[in-house]
């Protein structure tokens, strides 16, 4: 699947560039495509520099948590749920605790912590993989849920809105929460359908109901706050949890006589190795995405959607926000730039800008996530991962459109 998709990116980009040259008389398109290749290659190295430090730091702390037995205790706690969702993972396996910590970090918007923990979880799942080059069902479920945008406190979206002069930076909090819930449910249901998981099991239903109550309670609590209070509370909660996690690892490790410094260094060495092995996968995927964007494919798709929407007589205001949604599966930085551009062009509190911010918060950089997580363990046959992840992205986009028309239309 990944081989076919990667090849298709290049072929479609070349065909689109030929069309722009021969039909639209734009000879500069080839220089833009070639420039995009080199820019994306350079960007891959920049990302790697960031990942080197981040992975080294957090895998060091994780080694302390593992040595102190915290990951094992967490896995035992969640064993009843994951025994239904990931039946091939043994009860109490360290991967289960790491997966839970990854989901919690994602939910709180702690990206710097979530990625290293997620990579450690993927390595733990890979230790159970009988075919190391092919993704297992458990790895696919974990990655698709990861790629469904689990963020419950989108602090960065609030920050960008505040930078652009929004009077209420957290105005999109509830829309993002609803839309990201839709994308995560779509991810879970699509994988469960293909893998024939029993979601009607009482334990699974109990966890789903509990999660729904937790999200509903959070929405009720924060909906009564002012925008400034929501922003400050979200930021405080994220940073407080991050510091609390580090303190917990260190204190419990010290109490249980774990040599915390030596454990940190050993884990940090693993982070260095993981980072180094990621570079070829990042270069391959980001260069393909860069060509796709520079060749004008995304612009052609956007124009087609606008014309079709007007032809059937529907409101086309949402089309102005679609650049963010179209590039998000390929590049988080490009989607962020599209969102900011929409804010500047249409006004930070305009309908397209509010929709773009909601889409940014409820979708994920699918191909980047696949390249990083599967690249870290050398998986090449991804099976139904891409299809289910893109379906979750689509659900997030459609839910964003519906919710924003409901809230702001």
Structural Rg: 22 Å
The tally of structural domains comes to 1
The rough form would be described as: globular
Which structural class best describes the helix and strand composition? mainly alpha
Low-pLDDT segments, ≥5 res = none
Tally of separate helices: 17
Could you tell me the number of beta strands? 0
> Which percent bin holds the helix content?
over 70%
Strand content: under 5%
Distance between the termini: 39 Å
Largest sheet: none
Order of helices and strands: HHHHHHHHHHHHHHHHH
Oligomer: single chain
Q: Indicate the mean pLDDT.
A: 80
Please give the structural blueprint:
Elements lengths: L1 H21 L6 H39 L2 H16 L8 H14 L3 H16 L10 H10 L8 H9 L9 H23 L6 H22 L3 H29 L4 H35 L2 H15 L10 H6 L4 H15 L4 H12 L3 H12 L7 H24 L1
Helix pairs in contact: 1-11, 2-5, 2-10, 2-11, 3-4, 4-5, 5-6, 5-16, 6-8, 6-17, 8-15, 8-17, 11-16, 14-15, 15-17
Structural notes for this entry:
This protein is mainly alpha-helical and 409 residues long. The protein has one domain (2-408). It is 78% helix and 0% strand. The chain has 17 helices and no strands. It has helices spanning 2-22, 29-67, 70-85, 94-107, 111-126, 137-146, 155-163, 173-195, 202-223, 227-255, 260-294, 297-311, 322-327, 332-346, 351-362, 366-377, 385-408. Helix 2 packs across helix 10, helix 5 (111-126) runs antiparallel to helix 6 (137-146) and helix 11 (260-294) packs across helix 16. The radius of gyration is 22 Å and the shape is globular. The model has no long low-confidence stretch (mean pLDDT 80).
């Amino acid at each position: 699947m990944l081989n076919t998709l990667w090849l298709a990116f290049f072929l479609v980009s070349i065909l689109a560039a030929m069309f722009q040259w021969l039909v639209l008389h734009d000879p500069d398109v080839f220089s833009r495509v070639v420039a995009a290749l080199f820019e994306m290659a350079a960007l891959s190295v920049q990302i790697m520099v960031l990942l080197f430090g981040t992975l080294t730091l957090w895998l060091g702390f994780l080694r302390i948590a593992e040595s102190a037995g915290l990951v094992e205790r967490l896995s035992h706690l969640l064993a009843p749920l994951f025994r239904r969702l990931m039946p091939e993972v043994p009860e109490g396996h360290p991967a289960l605790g790491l997966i839970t910590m990854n989901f919690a970090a994602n939910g709180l918007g702690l990206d710097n912590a979530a990625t290293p923990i997620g990579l450690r979880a993927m390595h733990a799942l890979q230790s159970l993989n009988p075919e190391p080059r092919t993704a297992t069902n458990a790895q696919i479920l974990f990655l698709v849920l990861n790629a469904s945008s689990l963020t419950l406190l989108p602090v960065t979206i609030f920050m960008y809105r505040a930078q652009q002069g929004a009077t209420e930076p957290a105005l999109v909090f509830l829309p993002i929460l609803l839309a990201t819930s839709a994308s995560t449910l779509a991810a879970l249901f699509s994988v469960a359908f293909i893998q024939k998981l029993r979601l009607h099991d009482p334990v699974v239903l109990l966890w789903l109901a509990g999660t729904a109550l937790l999200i509903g309670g959070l929405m009720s609590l924060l909906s009564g706050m002012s925008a400034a209070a929501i922003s400050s509370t979200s930021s405080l909660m994220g940073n407080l949890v991050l510091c609390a996690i580090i303190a917990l690892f260190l204190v419990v490790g010290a109490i249980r006589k774990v040599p915390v410094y030596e454990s940190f260094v050993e884990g940090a060495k693993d982070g260095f190795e993981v980072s180094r092995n990621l570079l070829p996968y990042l270069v391959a995927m980001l260069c393909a995405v860069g060509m796709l964007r520079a060749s004008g494919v995304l612009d052609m798709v956007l124009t087609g959607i606008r014309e079709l929407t007007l032809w059937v007589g529907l409101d086309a205001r949402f089309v102005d926000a679609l650049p963010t949604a179209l590039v998000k599966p390929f590049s988080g930085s490009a989607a962020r730039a599209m969102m900011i551009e929409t804010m500047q062009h249409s006004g930070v509190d305009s309908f397209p800008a509010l929709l773009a911010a909601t889409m940014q918060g409820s979708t994920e950089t699918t191909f980047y996530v696949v390249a990083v997580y599967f690249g870290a363990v050398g998986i090449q046959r991804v099976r139904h991962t891409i299809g289910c992840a893109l379906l979750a992205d689509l659900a997030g986009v459609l839910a964003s459109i519906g919710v924003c028309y409901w809230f702001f239309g």
